[in-house]
Amino acid sequence: MTDRWARAEERYRAREADRRYPRRDDWGLDAREAREEPQQAGPAGWDDDDDTNVIPRYEDEHYDDEPEPEPVAPPRRVGQRAAPAGRAAGGRPEADRGRAKAPSGRDKQPGGRGKAASGRKRSRIASRKAAERKRRRRNLWVVGALLAVLIVSAAGFAGYKLMSRFAPAEDFAGPPGALVVVQVHPGDTASQIAGAMHERGVVASREAFYEAAVRNSGMNNVQPGYYAIGVNSPAATAVSTLVGGKSRVGNVTVSEGRLLHDKHDANTGGRYDGIYRKVAQASCIGAEQKCVTYEQLDAAGASTDLAALGVPDWAMKGVRESPDRSRQLEGLIAAGTWDFDPSGTPQQILRQLVTSSVERYESTGLLQSGATTGLTPYQTLVSASLVEREAKPQDMSKVARVIVNRLKADQMLQFDSTVNYTLDTTEVATTNADRARETAWNTYAMRGLPVTPISAPSLDALRAMENPEPGAWLYFVTVDKEGTTLFTESYSEHLRLVAQAQRSGILDSSKPYGG
């Protein structure tokens, strides 16, 4: 009997343990599969009709300070499967007793493990948030440090500028030394001129020159060009020298129709300075008159390195065909006022003048002018030089038309200016001997245009040749001392006009006129 009571008590404890701490052998199954598991038989050695079932419920007495005994699982037969989760040891489903909700398909793990996973997830989120807060604090420190550096730098620079404003600018005490050439470009401000002066060693600092310049009203009248000013000059002295005008060098004016070389008048014997002579005179620097000579320019202009002289592509062929190398640059230095660096070599000076002249020529539309005249750009320049020497400004477009008409008719131009070009002395009417002399320029002895221009044409003459006035004229002659020029297409009418010019003293009647 005692054994039976002991077994009953053990069975009771096992049931209580299963109720309090259910064993979940159905992990990985959904609730429906768990409920469909067959009930297993009770432990071996227990009968259903055991009379101990009628024994009243027995409860142990537990004191508050005693630990609750651990549950003991009932023994199983060999080969017997454990009772499915959610079912009590006695075979009664827990769902029937506790009406607990079956786990969903998404939550198949036991409650304990789900809570652990949820805890780990919350821990990872908290760790990320903590790392983000740490990174933000670090970024704030970096930004703050950079702002502090910028503020300190700005304050230092402002302090430096403030101190510099009150401190006097560095300046030379003088006296000025050797002369150097400084260029003032078109549109230069006082600040830019100050920079050029400092780079050339004229003044000790840009600030000193600028302060002296703003106090001198003459700075408003400074023209672009080249100026010779002594190095180590006090800023006020440098400004005064610049605005005084006498320091300007390398400035030359080429008049319309001027030739490269000197000419002499047949009546007075006076010298008519050529372009090379004018350039040589404008190149002198200082009291000692350091200059490029006429002969040096003449030699440089005869160089076969045409690219080094600035000859453009459209003129290369015509220049190479010149039989006289010393005349090959004729017409490529245009009429006008030019600035050049007198401290350069003769070749550099010529290149600067030719390059500037070509830019001015091309600005008139020279490269596109052949559509109406049938002439190349270089032929147009040659023709313009004839117009410059033969016509008054008001008659230039008509003389240009005479040239075009005669070239189309294959008729000799017969211009006295082309005869005079190669003579040492010049006059309006030429002699029979002069006109009979064959040269590459004499249009009395050949058909077509001279091999090169015969003078420096003006832009007006060039525009007239690019767009001749419409007409059928073949002849023209100046008939009085007021410069009246008459045009005709009849040769007999032309001879009558020549006789009129001889009576008025424009032409010498003792010298036949063939034009």
Distance between the termini: 168 Å
- Determine the number of helices (DSSP H or I, runs of at least 4 residues): 18
Bulk shape: elongated
Record field, number of beta strands: 10
Measured by DSSP, the beta-strand proportion falls in: 5-15%
Structural class: mainly alpha
Averaged pLDDT: 82
* Strand adjacency order, main sheet: 1-2-3
Q: Write down the secondary-structure element order.
A: HHHHEHHEHEEEEHHHEHHHHHEHHEEH
| Proportion of helical residues | 40-55%
Gyration radius from CA atoms, angstroms: 57 Å
- Low-confidence stretches are 26-55, 58-69, 77-110
The biggest sheet, with number of strands, parallel, antiparallel or mixed sense and barrel status, is:
3 strands, antiparallel
Task: Write a compact overview of the structure shown.
With 515 residues, this protein is mainly alpha-helical.
Structure write-up:
The chain is mainly alpha-helical and 515 residues long. Helix content is 42%, strand content 7%. The protein is built from 18 helices and 10 strands. The strands form 4 sheets. Strands 1-2-3 form a 3-stranded antiparallel beta sheet, with helices on one face. A 3-stranded mixed beta sheet has the order 6-5-8, with no helix packed on it. It has a two-stranded antiparallel ribbon with strand order 4-7. A hairpin with a 6-residue loop joins strand 9 (475-478) and strand 10 (485-488). Helix 6 (206-214) packs across helix 7, helix 13 (377-390) crosses helix 14 (396-408) and helix 14 (396-408) crosses helix 17 (459-466). Mean pLDDT is 82; it is low at 26-55, 58-69 and 77-110.
